[in-house]
Amino acid sequence: MTASPSPSPDTTAGTTDAVTADPTDAVTAGTTDAAARDARRDVSADSAHALHSPVISWFEEHARDLPWRRPEAGPWGVMVSEFMLQQTPVSRVLPVYEQWLARWPRPADLAAEAPGEAVRAWGRLGYPRRALRLHGAAAAITERHGGDVPQEHAQLLALPGVGEYTAAAVASFAYGQRHAVLDTNVRRVFARAATGVEYPPNATTAAERRLARELLPEDESTAASWAAASMELGALVCTAKNPDCARCPVAGLCAWRLAGKPAHDGPPRRGQTYAGTDRQVRGKLLAVLREAMGPVPQAVLDTVWNEPVQRARALDGLVSDGLVEPLDGGLYRLPQSRPQA
């Protein structure tokens, strides 16, 4: 990554302060208080510029030193970080990221191995389909682009498992291009500073995308810095709970603060549970398969969860998602077959 630091939402899996777990990034219209205000005035060039300078200056002083922000990370390091940081906190990503890049410093290195090795190395980051998608992207980069992460937004978007957010983030943070990069941290900053509401809609709306484009600096390098800076501001200061307005560089311009910090009046912000869910059972099954160096008998998998119907459903889901391969004789393993070109 040579032009601008990468985003890093410092959040926990399953909270609202994270990028969507599915990098295909479908756009869904919301009906919350923020969406109801989509007819608000367009942001003027002057008001947008008033936000840029203080936020970027704050970022230059307070940005965290993270490995994917360093020049040696390169575009591949940025891409790996973007996949890993989706709905996963920085503290959990750091050790896995460093191990991943040490083992697979180039896309071709990952593409040369079975997809099951990516799932194994993913460990307990959660949402392990991201590992398969990253493996698929590495294979496509190797086959279509000579092993180099493409620079063009359209080429990035055409990679398996890469949606609008990830394509914009890699283009911006790895190549310093001008793109609106909207993760939940950025959406929350924009909702408060520009729209005057406490939280953005549950799903990204067309109005939010329009606002992000209006706030985007015209200069390419400044736009890349703005994308990283606004994301860091949401991760460290303009947090979902207990925002630290005293530390905010644009507190004096924030529409939500100036309005008296009105409480959220949209639909309830739903958290995600984990204990007792199919996600927990899937995680336990995958943990056994990751530790095994060969196929695992059904009888061993049966010991991880007492409820047989839920256990069978979770295992079937893993097979359907391509995370587990069933073999003859009631054996299971991590996927070994490479996806078709």
Sheet/helix structural class: mainly alpha
Mean pLDDT rating: 88
The unreliable regions are 1-41
The percent range for helix content is 40-55%
What's the end-to-end separation, in Å?
A: 28 Å
Order of neighbouring strands in the sheet with most strands: 1-3-2
Estimate the global geometry from the Cα principal axes: globular
Keywords:
mainly alpha; globular; disordered N terminus; 2% strand; three-stranded antiparallel beta sheet; single chain; 341 residues
Short recap of the structure:
The chain has 341 residues and is mainly alpha-helical. The chain has helices at residues 33-36, 45-62, 74-84, 90-103, 107-111, 115-122, 129-145, 153-157, 164-175, 184-195, 206-215, 220-236, 255-258, 278-291, 298-301, 308-320, and strands at residues 296-297, 325-327, 331-333. Strands 1-3-2 form a three-stranded antiparallel sheet.
Topology:
Blueprint: H1 33-36, H2 45-62, H3 74-84, H4 90-103, H5 107-111, H6 115-122, H7 129-145, H8 153-157, H9 164-175, H10 184-195, H11 206-215, H12 220-236, H13 255-258, H14 278-291, E1 296-297, H15 298-301, H16 308-320, E2 325-327, E3 331-333
Antiparallel strand pairs: 1-3, 2-3
Helix pairs in contact: 2-12, 3-4, 3-9, 6-7, 10-12, 14-16
